[in-house]
Amino acid sequence: MENKAISEILYEIADFLGLEDFPTARFEVRAYKKAALTIETLQEPIEEVYNKGGTAALMELPGVGKSIAGLIEEYLKTGKSKKYEMMKKKYPFDMRNLTAVTGLGAKKALTLYKKLGVRNIDDLKRAIDTHKVSKLEGFGEKSEEVIKHGLEMKESSKGRMLIIDALPAAEAIVEKLRKSGLVEKVMIAGSARRMRETVGDMDILAISKKAPEVMRFFTSLPEVESILSQGPTKATVWLKMGIQCDLRALEPESFGAAVQYFTGSRDHNVQVRTIAVKLGYKLNEYGLFDRKNKNVGGVEEESIYEKLGMQWMPPEMREARGEVELALRHKIPKLVEMSDIKGDLHTHTKETDGANSIQEMAAAAVGLGYKYIATTNHTKSLVIAKGMDEKGFIEYFKRVDKLNDDLNGELTILKGAEVDILRNGKLDLDKNILKEMDCVVGATHSRLAQVDVGKETMTDRAIKAMDTGLVHVLAHPTGRIIGEREQFQIDLEKVAEVAERNNVALEINASNRMDLNDTNIMLTSKYKILYSIATDAHRTQNYMLMRYGVGTARRGWLTKDRILNAMPLDKLRKLIGKR
Ligand code: DGT
Ligand code: CA
Ligand code: CA
């Protein structure tokens, strides 16, 4: 499937075109970006579209005109694009990776190339370390700091992959192993089972009578780039997607112990093993052995916890944060589950920066069995996201009303906005229209927040917004983006206290933000507040991110009664009723 490669080239050409100043450059930038988005989100392989109907079929795709269709055809035939090669010759620096650093756009990358000869990330690091960047016109100390920070974020996430990308890939491999008929049982362990937001490598466990054959099957999967090691019961491979994956084949009598051991975490295991030793057992990945060295562990990990006088606990809790004590007292809470989720309270449409219409977003929500969604488009001051003004919302809501009528109660679309919280804490829409909305999601979008302003200012901003009494949910409260932007300075306990007073829910944003994250949930959950687990969907496929939000909520030990979007519609309406 060439969709990803082609959309990346189109995005990059758009970046290059942004540096040109011929009269129609601006329009071309827009065209290339639009086409890139279309192909990025296309469900079927682009080569199939082309094979079926040639360039004419390509030109039927939104945003794809004659010249872009020609480029796609050329790429599909030759694996190259002359236009792209030409641009790369004219601007010989690593546009893709440089502009992936937060704080660095195409224009700044060009300046760095022209003035300092920065061609790639290594050059950039050197330029930052020697403080050459801050002295350039249009940069300054602050800008240098932001880029430096962006580089550090990239560095710190190196070698780890978002669970959003890793888990579906691990599940696909598990599915193939299951279908191979070579295994009696197979499952994912490690940090992926614990639903950590990033994973270092993937750990798969299997029971099989034909272990060497399973290993051969595994190491010759098309997903595999290279084999790092292969023995009769264990293999480690490097996947094409850029992550390591282990497979271990086990005997049935060891399976429970292996699942417990390889699920981890390491710190959790240390605590459990200490208890085992106290009770006269020996615990390792092969079993739970009594004084006579008899394995009393069993096939399921439940039996290990049971033998140790503990209640079984969900993997998401196993981080040595007090779950072992709770398990000994049989006080493990019943955590929220995917099946409890009744809707999504933070979604976008193509009226602003989303890819789908509200009709499409609604139909997809019905498909998932949701009872409601809130449609929460951006507001006017967020210009890059095509934020809407009051008039825009009034017109849009008329269409939503009509759609709600058509849906006839099968799904309820709650009318809302992701209203920007401005620098002074004021909201970016007129009070009278906010009052009429069903679900107002308040959000700070200041990109430079972490170096821009201090903790007090950010905390104050959120508090002022909540004190308007108009906000139902505080979106991505700390502003972090995994691998890109660290959370900004904010006093979350203070925020939670004010949220409690104003009956505002805090969001668990399940995208690559994962914000609040597990530790911030734990920090705030002592206050009587609710949480909204939301995907911030910009296209129908993004609804699938909900499971990672639920996983994060579980890592924060939240129960169903703490989750706003686990409530039936009438209860939800009472909780967030018109303000
Ligand atoms: P990751 O891969 O960095 O995201 O994190 P994990 O938790 O998946 O770690 P990994 O893959 O190194 O090992 C999987 C599990 O195996 C880990 O959670 C606990 C267990 N484990 C690995 N090495 C040790 C060890 O030296 N001692 C103990 N107690 N457990 C270990
Ligand atoms: Ca792992
Ligand atoms: Ca591992």
What does this 3D model show about the protein?
By secondary structure, this protein is α/β, with parallel strands linked by helices. It has 4 domains: 89 residues, DNA polymerase beta, N-terminal domain-like (DNA polymerase, domain 1, Orthogonal Bundle), CATH 1.10.150.110; 90 residues, 2-Layer Sandwich (Beta Polymerase, domain 2); 74 residues, DNA polymerase, thumb domain (Beta Polymerase, domain 3); 239 residues, TIM Barrel (Alpha-Beta Barrel), CATH 3.20.20.140. The protein is built from 25 helices and 16 strands. The protein has a 7-stranded parallel sheet with strand order 10-11-12-13-14-15-16. Strands 2-4-7-6-5 form a 5-stranded mixed sheet. A two-stranded antiparallel ribbon has the order 1-3. Strand 5 and strand 6 form a beta hairpin. Helix 1 runs antiparallel to helix 2 and helix 8 crosses helix 9. The radius of gyration is 26 Å and the shape is globular. 43% of the residues are buried. The mean pLDDT is 93. The site of one calcium ion has 6 residues, from helix 11 and strand 4.
